[in-house]
Write a structure and sequence with these properties.
The chain is 34% helix and 24% strand. Strands 1-2-5-4-3 form a 5-stranded mixed sheet. The protein contains 4 helices and 5 strands, in the order αββαβββαα. The protein starts with 9 loop residues before the first helix and ends in an 18-residue tail after the last helix.
Length: 129
């Protein structure tokens, strides 16, 4: 069962998925807010990789860290690294981990071009007093 801990809303989850993909050097990380465009989900997280092992590592990083640290499991996992596209369905967040060529071919950014992009917060600069 998928649930959000009290301090985890769908936007925080999407940004956490982006951060976890970044841990494995995913390329072209993008979070799209599709709440006003879709009744299926709130956010898309798009991440690209250049090889099957990298795609596998990105998927494993996201699924294992969310399971261990947040108690979250994807409702559905579809696709495979060998096919070049894996979708992790966390209900309000869909994570698309794609080979760069597959991502270019399907061009989800254009299909969902009206969706606002969500950027992670920049860390605050430390004060030197």
């Amino acid at each position: 069962m998928v649930y959000f801990p009290r301090d985890m809303d769908s936007k925080k989850l999407a940004l956490l998925c982006r951060e976890l993909a970044d841990n494995k050097k995913a390329d072209d990380l993008l979070v799209l807010d599709v709440r006003k465009l879709s009744s299926v989900t709130d956010f898309f997280v798009l991440a690209s990789g250049t090889s099957q092992p990298q795609l596998r590592a990105i998927v494993e990083e996201i699924t294992s860290k969310l399971r261990e640290d947040q108690g979250l499991r994807p409702r559905v996992v579809d696709g495979s690294p060998a096919g070049g596209w894996v979708v992790l369905d966390y209900f309000d967040v869909l994570v698309h981990v794609m080979h760069a060529e597959v991502r270019q071919r399907y061009d989800l950014e254009s299909l969902w071009g009206d969706a606002p992009k969500v950027s992670p917060r920049k860390p605050r600069a430390k004060r030197s007093d």
